[in-house]
């Protein structure tokens, strides 16, 4: 079957993660176009993923069956300038930008365009992405977006666009919370006498193992935590200290701050 042409406006971190997922899933490089202002970045993407690159947004937009908007929210309006007239009649526009609503995208691209809002995350780069989508466009457009997302991991639909703020705060930004935890665990392991390499390996493999248990076990996170925590043991000592230092409140406030920031970006 003929593959869709998937074009990206912006070839940064998140675009690369989706491109890697698509390529790993067998999508042809010749059917992926990327527009990106920086020559060095274009060269990198072309050499690494064998995709087509351009400095001209209109050129890649014109070719697209699916057009992924992958610039920062603040860069979006200028990046879309003049693109509306270039789009195919049945194009699916997938915006991955935090905050920017479908109605604002319609203002910038016109009412006739079918828009799917998506919040992916960077683990798409290794096929372990988590994405959520919202759209009131036809089913075909949602399925096209899901084709991209499912090449990169899991994908779910949300019923209300307003839920995208919470999604962004959990799974969009979420990898950074776990990376921070790994950074702190590694640095502390080094302080306790381990080599950098060993401390990194212990933190990373532990994160992977915990993540696999969370996704594969039918137990809740709380139950899995209890399994590790022997009464009066080492884990109990760690968790008591973490609670005492306010870790749960810090995480809760952080997630709420991310959701609020997404709402601000919408404004
Ligand atoms: N990173 C993440 O984990 C996630 C990001 N997102 C969303 O993805 C989007 C992109 O984020 P991210 O990949 O991190 O950002 P990046 O800054 O890495 O990527 C954006 C890219 O777009 C380029 N660009 C800027 N202006 C234009 C333009 N007018 N036309 C074409 N390309 C342009 C930038 O070039 P230059 O550097 O020269 O400005 C940059 O290479 C954001 O809207 C973000 O909200 C969503 C989920 C997760
Ligand atoms: O930090 C950001 O704004 C983007 C959106 C979610 C993850 N990265």
Keywords:
267 residues; alpha/beta; Rossmann fold; ProC C-terminal domain-like fold; 2 domains; 8-stranded mixed beta sheet; 12 helices; binds NADPH dihydro-nicotinamide-adenine-dinucleotide phosphate; binds (2S)-3,4-dihydro-2H-pyrrole-2-carboxylic acid
Largest sheet: 8 strands, mixed
| Helix-and-strand structural type | alpha/beta
Shape: elongated
CATH class of the largest domain: Alpha Beta
How are the strands of the biggest sheet laid out side by side? 3-2-1-4-5-6-7-8
What bound compounds does this protein have?
Answer: NADPH dihydro-nicotinamide-adenine-dinucleotide phosphate, (2S)-3,4-dihydro-2H-pyrrole-2-carboxylic acid
Counted by DSSP, the helix tally is 12
What do we call the CATH topology of the largest domain? Rossmann fold
Query: Which stretches are poorly predicted, pLDDT < 50 over at least 5 residues?
Result: none
Mean residue pLDDT: 96
- By DSSP, the count of extended strands is 8
CATH superfamily of the largest domain: NAD(P)-binding Rossmann-like Domain
Order of helices and strands: EHEHEHEHEHEEHEHHHHHH
Kindly report how far apart the N and C termini lie.
42 Å
Number of domains: 2
CATH architecture of the largest domain: 3-Layer(aba) Sandwich
Fraction of helical residues: 40-55%
Strand content: 5-15%
Rg calc = 21 Å
Domain Pyrroline-5-carboxylate reductase dimerisation: 161-265
Binding site for NADPH: 57
Catalytic activity: L-proline + NADP(+) = (S)-1-pyrroline-5-carboxylate + NADPH + 2 H(+); L-proline + NAD(+) = (S)-1-pyrroline-5-carboxylate + NADH + 2 H(+)
GO cellular component, one term: cytoplasm
């Amino acid at each position: 079957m003929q593959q869709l042409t998937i074009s990206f406006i912006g070839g940064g971190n998140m675009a690369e993660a989706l491109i890697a997922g698509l390529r790993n899933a067998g999508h042809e490089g010749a059917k992926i176009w990327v527009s990106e202002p920086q020559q060095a970045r274009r060269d990198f993407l072309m050499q690494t993923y064998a995709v087509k690159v351009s400095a001209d947004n209109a050129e890649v937009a014109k070719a697209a069956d699916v057009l992924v908007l992958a610039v920062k929210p603040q860069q979006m309006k200028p990046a879309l300038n003049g693109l509306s007239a270039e789009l195919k009649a049945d194009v699916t526009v997938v915006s991955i930008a935090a905050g920017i609503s479908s109605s604002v995208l319609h203002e910038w691209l016109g009412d006739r365009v079918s828009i799917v809002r998506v919040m992916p995350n960077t683990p798409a780069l290794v096929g372990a992405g988590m994405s959520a989508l919202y759209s009131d466009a036809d089913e075909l457009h949602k399925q096209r977006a899901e084709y991209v997302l499912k090449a990169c991991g899991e994908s779910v639909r949300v019923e209300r666009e307003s839920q995208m703020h919470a999604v962004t705060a959990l799974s969009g930004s979420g990898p950074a919370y776990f990376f921070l935890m790994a950074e702190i665990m590694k640095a502390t392991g080094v302080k306790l006498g381990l080599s950098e390499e060993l401390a990194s390996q212990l933190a990373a493999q532990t994160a992977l193992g915990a993540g696999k248990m969370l996704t594969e076990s039918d137990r809740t996170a709380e139950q899995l935590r209890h399994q590790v925590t022997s009464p009066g043991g080492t884990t109990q000592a760690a968790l008591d200290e973490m609670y005492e230092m306010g870790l749960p409140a810090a995480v809760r406030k952080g997630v709420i701050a991310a959701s609020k920031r997404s709402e601000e970006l919408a404004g």
